[in-house]
Amino acid sequence: MENKHLHFNTAIGVKKPENYRNKQTACPFCEREKLTGLLAVDGPIILLKNKYPVLENAYQTVLIETDDCHAELSTYSTEHLHRLIQFGIRHWLDMEQTGQYRSVLFFKNHGPLSGGTIAHPHMQIVGLNDLDYMEHVLPEMFDGILIAEDEGTALTLSTKPKVGFYEFNIWMKDDGYQPKFAEYLQTAVHYILNHFPFKATSYNVFFYHLNKRIYAKIVPRFVTTPLYIGYGLPQVPNNLNWMAEEVEKLYFKKEVV
Ligand SMILES: [Zn+2]
C-alpha cells in the first residue's frame, strides 16, 4: 500500500532542543565551531545535516541563514537577502536533481506559532524518499489579487488559500534567479511582522516547484481554525482587497509629484 503519511520519530523528537519558550537552552546554531555534518558554506550561511532527523524515510538538512541569532528575514540587507535566497534555491533544486528523492521540501518556520523549535533564523531542505508533496498542491492555491509584478515575477494575496485566511504568494520562472522574487518575499514577511491587522509573531514560508516555476507561499500563523482541522474547509476573509491595497500602498506606491 502506498504511504501517504510522514512518519515522525518520537524518540528523536524528545531530544530536540527548543528555545522559543525555554530561554535557558543555549542556541545550537550560534556555536559554529561545534557544528557537524556541514554540507556547504557561503560566508555566514551554512547548510548542514539535521542533528535531529525526526522524519522517517527522509534526508533532513538545516540551512542556517546568518551568524546573527537575533536577525530576521525581514531586516536582512538586500545583499544578504539575495545571497541567502539564491543559496537556498540552488541547494534545494540540486537535491531535486539528484533524483534520489520522490520530492524535496524547502520551507522556513519563524516564531512560536510556526511549528519551529529554534529561534535562530534558519530554513530546512528535506528530501522525501517515498512521498510526493505535489499530491497536496493545486495550482489554484497560488491564485490571488495582484499586489506587484516585475519581469515574470509577482506578489499576490490568495483568493483560494490552502488553509484559509491570509496567504501571500510569489513566483518566478525556474530558469534563472529574479532578484524581485526575494524582495517580494521580504516585503510579505515584513508586512506580516510589522503592519498586519492582528499582532503576528509567527509565519511560515513554503517553496514549491511546479509548471517550470518556483513559487513561495508566505503564511502568517495563528491558532488554526477548527473548521479547517475538522472539515478541511479553508475560510476566505472578505477584506482581501483592502489588505492587497494596503500592502501596495505601504511598499509599492510611487509618490505622486
Ligand atoms: Zn543562535
Keyphrases for this structure?
23% helix; alpha+beta; globular; ten-stranded antiparallel β-sheet; 257 residues; single chain; binds zinc ion
- Indicate the mean pLDDT: 94
Q: What helical percentage do the residues reach?
A: 10-25%
What is the beta-strand fraction? 25-35%
Please give the alpha-carbon distance between the first and last residues.
Answer: 65 Å
Q: Report the C-alpha radius of gyration, rounded.
A: 18 Å
Query: Can you count the helices?
Result: 5
SSE order, one letter for each helix or strand:
HEEEHEEEEEHEEHH
Number of strands: 10
Largest pleated sheet: 10 strands, antiparallel
Give the uncertain stretches in residue-range form.
none
Q: Which geometry do the CA atoms define? A: globular
Determine the structural class based on helices, strands and strand pairing.
alpha+beta
Strand order of the largest sheet: 1-2-3-5-4-9-10-8-7-6
Any ligands, ions or cofactors bound here, and which? zinc ion
